[in-house]
C-alpha cells in the first residue's frame, strides 16, 4: 500500500467521531495553556530571584557599613589576614550566609576577602560608583565566579568616605532556588492539566450525547439537507424554543403567516399578536389538525413538542384544498339525495301509472303539479337561505329523505348562511350527523318534525337542530358525545356511537363547542358554535375569482327550478 493511499491518510488524520475530536482539541488546548502558564511563570521568577539576591547583598553591605568600628579599623590598621577588618568581615559573612564580604579602602585595596591571599590586592571589579557614594546592585563575575552583588560606600564618624563594602551572594544558590521551585510548579501545572482533561472529557461526553455521536461532516451534511428540505417543502414549519421564542421559520411559514425573518428570536405572542393562531402554535389549544385563520388564509396546524422543551409546529394551507373538498362533499351529498329521490320517484311513478291506467287524467295532472311544486318550493326555500352549495345540497337531500320517513324538515325564516365558510366539509359533516340523529329520534312520533337553524354573528356560526323526539335525559347529555356510546344496536358491518363524538371533535378543532339541551316545545336541541366559522369577505371573493375550477364546476349550487 502506498504512503498516499486513502486508508493511510485516514489513519494519520483526526478521528471522525465528534467526541474524539473535541476531546483531543480540548486536551491540546489544556496542555498548551499549562505549558504557556508554566513558561510565563518561570520567566519572571528568575528575574525576581536575581532581584531578591541583589537586594539581600545590598542590605548586608549597608549593615556592614553602618558599623562604626569597621571604618575606624580600616583607618588605623593594615590589610592583613589577621587584622580586625578581616575578622569583622568573616563574622558578618558567616552570620548572613553571604558568599563573601569585601571591605576596601578608597584605592580599591582589599582589607578583607574570603580568600586570604587576595587581601592587600586591588579588587577585580570597578568600585568607582560605590566610592562615589552610590549604592550598586548587579550580577557580575569576580574572582569567586558569578554572583549577585551589593556595594555601598564606607563612611567614618564625620561622614567622609573612607572606603567601600562589597557583598556577594553566590549565584548558584539563586539558581538552586529556581530549580527547587520547578517541581512544585510542575505539580500545580499537572494538577491544572488533569482538571482540564477531566473537564474536557465531561464536555466531550455532553457534546457526544447532544450530537448523537455524529461526525462533524455528518452534522454539516444534515444541516445542509435540513435547510434544503425546510425551505423546499410546501408545508409551513415554525420552530419554538422553551421560552416560546421563534427560532426558525421556513419560506412557506413566512408566506402563510405573513411574517419575515426579522421576527426570529421574538416571542410568539409579540410576532403574531393575540388570537387563535397564536394559541394553537403556543400549545394553549391542543389537538390534531386544528383549524385557524390567519389573515385571509385558513390553516391546519399541528404541534409536536421537542426534547429540549420547545416545539415544532406545521402549517398547511386549507384554502388551497377547499375546492377539492367542496367537490367531494357535494358529490357525496348529491348521491345520497339522488338515492332517496330515486326511491321516492319510483313510488310517484307507480302512482301516476295507476291514475293513467284508470283513465283519471285530471287527477294525474293535478298529482304531477303537486309533486313538482312541493319539490321546487323546498329547494328554493333552502338555497335562498343557505348560500353554501355543499350545505344547501345536503339539506335538500335530507328533506327528501325526511319526507320519505314521514318527518317534516324545515328551515326557519331567519336562517342565513353566506358562502364563505372556513370549513364547509366539516360543517356538512356536523349537520349531516345531527340531522340523521334528529330524523331517527323524530320518526314515528306525532307531528314528526326536524328544524335546522343556522345563524351568523360576525364571523361566528351558530347551528341549532331541533327535533320532536323524546329528548335526551339530563344525566346523559355529556355521555352521548363519548365515542362508542349509542342507544341503538350496532350494525353488522361496523360500530355506532361515533357520529356525535365526531360532531364535538370537529367543533372543538375549530375552537368551538357542541352541547345538547331540551327544545322549548319538547325533544332535543343540539347547538354547535364555531367562533371562527366564516372567512373574511375579501377571502371568499378572492377564492371565487382566482379558482379556475369554479368555471367548469357543474354542481356548485342546487339550481332553482323555473316557476
Automatic annotation (TrEMBL):
Catalysed reactions, semicolon-separated: ATP + protein L-histidine = ADP + protein N-phospho-L-histidine
Keyword annotations from UniProtKB, A to Z: ATP-binding, Cell membrane, Kinase, Membrane, Nucleotide-binding, Phosphoprotein, Transferase, Transmembrane, Transmembrane helix, Two-component regulatory system
Residue ranges annotated for the Histidine kinase domain, each copy included: 402-534
Enzyme class: transferase
Single Gene Ontology MF annotation: protein histidine kinase activity
Membrane topology term: Multi-pass membrane protein
Entry annotated with the keyword Cell membrane: yes
Region (Disordered): 531-563
SUPFAM superfamilies associated with the record: ATPase domain of HSP90 chaperone/DNA topoisomerase II/histidine kinase, PYP-like sensor domain (PAS domain), Sensory domain-like, Sporulation response regulatory protein Spo0B
TM stretches of this protein: 21-45, 185-203
Recorded superkingdom: Bacteria
Biased segments, Basic and acidic residues type: 542-563
EC numbers, comma separated: 2.7.13.3
Annotated localization: Cell membrane
PANTHER family xrefs: SENSOR HISTIDINE KINASE DCUS, TWO-COMPONENT HISTIDINE KINASE
The protein, known as: histidine kinase
Origin organism lineage: Bacteria, Bacillati, Actinomycetota, Actinomycetes, Kitasatosporales
Amino acid at each position: 500500500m502506498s504512503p498516499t493511499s486513502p486508508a493511510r491518510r485516514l489513519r494519520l488524520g483526526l478521528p471522525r467521531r465528534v467526541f474524539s475530536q473535541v476531546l483531543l482539541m480540548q486536551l491540546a488546548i489544556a496542555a498548551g495553556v499549562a505549558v504557556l502558564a508554566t513558561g510565563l511563570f518561570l520567566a519572571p521568577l528568575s528575574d525576581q530571584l536575581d532581584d531578591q539576591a541583589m537586594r539581600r547583598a545590598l542590605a548586608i553591605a549597608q549593615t556592614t557599613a553602618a558599623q562604626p568600628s569597621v571604618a575606624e579599623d580600616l583607618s588605623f590598621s593594615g590589610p592583613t589576614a589577621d587584622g580586625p577588618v578581616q575578622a569583622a568581615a568573616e563574622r558578618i559573612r558567616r552570620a548572613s550566609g553571604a558568599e563573601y564580604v569585601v571591605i576596601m579602602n578608597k584605592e580599591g585595596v582589599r582589607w578583607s576577602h574570603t580568600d586570604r591571599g587576595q587581601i592587600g590586592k586591588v579588587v577585580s571589579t570597578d568600585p568607582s560608583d560605590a566610592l562615589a557614594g552610590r549604592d550598586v546592585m548587579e550580577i557580575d563575575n569576580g574572582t569567586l565566579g558569578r554572583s549577585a552583588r551589593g556595594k555601598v560606600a564606607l563612611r567614618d564618624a564625620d561622614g567622609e568616605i573612607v572606603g567601600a563594602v562589597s557583598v556577594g551572594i553566590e549565584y548558584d544558590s539563586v539558581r538552586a532556588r529556581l530549580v527547587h521551585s520547578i517541581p512544585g510548579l510542575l505539580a500545580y501545572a499537572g494538577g491544572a492539566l488533569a482538571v482540564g482533561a477531566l473537564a474536557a472529557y465531561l464536555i466531550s461526553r455532553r457534546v457526544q450525547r447532544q450530537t448523537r455521536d455524529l461526525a462533524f461532516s455528518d452534522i454539516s451534511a444534515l444541516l445542509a439537507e435540513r435547510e434544503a428540505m425546510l425551505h423546499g417543502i410546501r408545508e409551513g414549519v415554525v420552530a419554538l424554543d422553551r421560552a416560546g421564542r421563534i427560532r426558525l421559520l421556513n419560506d412557506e411559514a413566512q408566506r402563510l403567516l405573513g411574517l419575515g425573518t426579522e421576527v426570529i428570536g421574538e416571542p410568539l405572542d409579540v410576532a403574531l399578536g393575540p388570537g387563535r393562531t397564536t394559541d394553537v402554535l403556543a400549545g394553549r389549544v391542543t389537538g390534531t389538525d386544528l383549524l385557524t385563520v390567519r389573515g385571509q388564509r385558513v390553516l391546519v396546524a399541528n404541534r409536536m413538542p421537542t426534547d429540549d422543551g420547545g416545539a415544532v409546529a406545521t402549517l398547511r394551507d386549507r384554502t388551497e384544498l377547499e375546492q377539492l373538498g367542496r367537490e367531494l362533499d357535494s358529490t357525496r351529498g348529491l348521491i345520497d339525495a339522488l338515492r332517496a329521490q330515486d326511491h321516492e320517484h319510483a313510488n310517484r311513478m307507480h302512482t301516476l301509472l295507476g291514475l293513467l291506467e284508470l283513465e283519471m287524467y285530471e287527477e294525474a295532472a293535478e298529482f304531477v303539479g303537486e309533486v313538482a311544486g312541493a319539490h321546487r318550493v323546498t329547494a328554493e326555500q333552502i338555497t335562498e337561505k343557505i348560500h353554501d352549495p355543499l350545505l344547501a345540497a345536503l339539506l335538500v337531500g335530507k328533506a327528501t329523505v325526511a319526507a320519505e320517513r314521514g318527518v317534516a324538515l324545515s328551515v326557519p325564516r331567519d336562517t342565513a348562511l353566506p358562502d364563505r365558510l372556513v370549513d364547509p366539509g366539516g360543517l356538512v359533516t356536523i349537520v349531516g350527523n345531527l340531522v340523521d340523529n334528529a330524523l331517527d329520534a323524530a320518526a314515528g312520533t306525532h307531528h314528526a318534525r326536524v328544524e335546522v337553524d343556522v345563524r351568523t354573528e360576525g364571523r361566528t356560526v351558530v347551528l341549532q337542530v331541533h327535533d320532536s323526539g323524546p329528548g335526551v335525559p339530563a344525566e346523559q347529555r355529556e355521555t352521548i358525545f363519548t365515542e362508542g356510546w349509542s342507544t341503538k344496536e350496532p350494525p353488522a358491518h361496523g360500530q355506532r356511537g361515533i357520529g356525535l363524538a365526531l360532531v364535538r371533535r370537529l367543533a372543538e378543532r375549530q375552537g368551538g363547542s357542541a352541547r345538547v339541551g331540551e327544545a322549548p316545545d319538547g325533544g332535543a336541541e343540539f347547538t354547535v358554535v364555531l367562533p371562527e366559522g366564516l372567512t373574511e369577505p375579501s377571502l371568499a371573493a378572492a377564492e371565487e375569482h382566482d379558482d379556475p375550477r369554479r368555471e367548469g364546476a357543474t354542481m356548485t349550487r342546487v339550481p332553482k327550478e323555473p316557476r
